[in-house]
Amino acid sequence: MNSTKNVMIVGVGGQGSLLASKLLGRLLLTKGYDIKVSEVHGMSQRGGSVVTYVRFGDKVYSPIIDRGEADFIVSFELLEAARYTEYLKPDGRIVTNTQQINPMPVITGAAEYPADLDRKMKDAGINIDAFDALSLAEKAGSSKAVNLVLLGKLSRYFDFPVEDWMEAIEQSVPEKFLEMNKCAFLLGRDA
């Protein structure tokens, strides 16, 4: 019997984290896992935090991931990655975009964006795979494809063939965006 695995997808409203979680959930379902997906919206319409939990295994009883339980945290933005490190298992991994999106306190001048967050997380002993997913998304054709770039990178840590990921993308993405999203996924996978 395999134990339940936990993936948190964190970001800022409007970045495509919900599509990423649905695509991952669809793939895991085709692999025969019991899955639970739960979405926690902050002020997502106003650029606030959005968190999605994806839990899978032989039998999953709850959709919620508690502190210290996440095998993976997929983050669309550095500060969001840092914000959720306490949810990571000791041997867990963060896959994050190095993009920085200023939260309201930084925009208003009440605070400064913390410097060197990826280095600070590494220095704290966190397994972090930080890379410029935004540039790869733009290379694929749209800054909105960061979600697929990040899933591409995450796919390296799963033992599923690329073809299965591609099939999940085909079932989740509108036809007119399909080639761009497949390209973004492959750029992330090869990053």
What does this structure look like?
This protein is an alpha/beta fold. It has a domain at 5-136: Pyruvate-ferredoxin oxidoreductase, PFOR, domain III (Pyruvate-ferredoxin Oxidoreductase, domain 3, 3-Layer(aba) Sandwich), CATH 3.40.920.10. Helices cover 38% and strands 24% of the residues. A six-stranded mixed β-sheet has the order 2-3-1-4-5-6, sandwiched between helices. Helix 5 crosses helix 6 (146-155) and helix 6 (146-155) packs across helix 8 (178-190).
Features:
single chain; 191 residues; alpha/beta; Pyruvate-ferredoxin Oxidoreductase, domain 3; 8 helices; 6 strands; globular
The CATH superfamily of the domain at 5-136 bears the name Pyruvate-ferredoxin oxidoreductase, PFOR, domain III
* Unreliable segments of 5+ consecutive residues: none
Oligomer: single chain
- What do the pLDDT scores average to? 92
Order of strands, main sheet, comes to 2-3-1-4-5-6
Please count the helical segments. Answer: 8
How many beta-strand runs?
6
How do you describe this structure in short?
The protein has helices spanning 17-30, 78-83, 104-107, 117-123, 133-140, 146-155, 162-172, 178-190, and strands spanning 5-12, 34-41, 49-57, 70-75, 88-97, 127-131. With 191 residues, it is of the alpha/beta class.
Topology:
Elements: E1 5-12, H1 17-30, E2 34-41, E3 49-57, E4 70-75, H2 78-83, E5 88-97, H3 104-107, H4 117-123, E6 127-131, H5 133-140, H6 146-155, H7 162-172, H8 178-190
